[in-house]
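Tokenise the fold.
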Amino acid sequence: MKIGIYPGCSLKGGSREYLESVVALAKEFDIEVTEITDWNCCGATAAHNLNHELSLSLPARILALGEKDGFEEIIVPCAACYSRLAVTQHELSENEVLKNRISEIIEMPYTGSVKILNIIQFIEKYIIDNIPYKQDRTFNYKVACYYGCLLVRPHKVLNFDRPEDPQSMDNIMKKIGATPIEWAFKTECCGAGLTMSKTDIVAKLSGNILDDAVSRGAEVIVVACPMCHSNLDMRRPEINKYLNKDIQIPAIYITQALGIAAGIDNKKLGLQRHFVAVDLPYQSDIEKVNHVEQKLTEE
């Protein structure tokens, strides 16, 4: 099976472990993910504040390239990229004149035929029902499923899960043995792109998220957005200073959690790249199992 993937800027840079875990998970289930040819930045949070046509042209070009490559579906793991592509596809489907104008700007045909899957939809459709249940590899933790701002919004456009109390990620985690907690910050903002310019604000917003999760017994934060992960992971020193606490709960991508449950090697999932160590008790046991299986195969 072959599916297109739009990694976006983050998954090729500071959040490359996210892409590594997506590719490793797909490979584990015989799914070939192929990058869209000559893809560009989607415009993220900046373009639509500056120029409306630019904010549509950047995502439309990506989708047009996906059509040109012959993909019926493309995975967009980054929540911000997913939002920009999905909103653009929706807006152009509602306005034929605007769609033609954008096709002129990007100098290629655009029909809007490609189906866009966020990472949760991809997992629900192709992965979760195929993960073998193995008692020693079950993700047996209390988890805080953090959706962030953009994965489920704007609801009228995306029509994906509930905007205030989404459940899709929680349901996936239950299927691999985790216990999702009930908490108040699953769709609150982490500070997003203010991480460089207003680090103090990010420390406060992300700190409130972590503090609530830990106070309710979470052992792991599970995310589906590279910016959310960056703020919760990389900004931990600033967060701990703001909270005046030493919070060491790891933040991992949902694809990494599923990869652990499926027995995929930690390095293939990029777990060693996090700032906050992902030190889960049974991971060493999984590595021992993998080592024994490899020795038996060699013999």
User: Anything to note?
Assistant: The longest strand covers residues 142-146. The two ends are 32 Å apart (CA to CA). Residues 52-68 form the longest helix (17 residues). The chain has two domains: 2-120, 133-291.
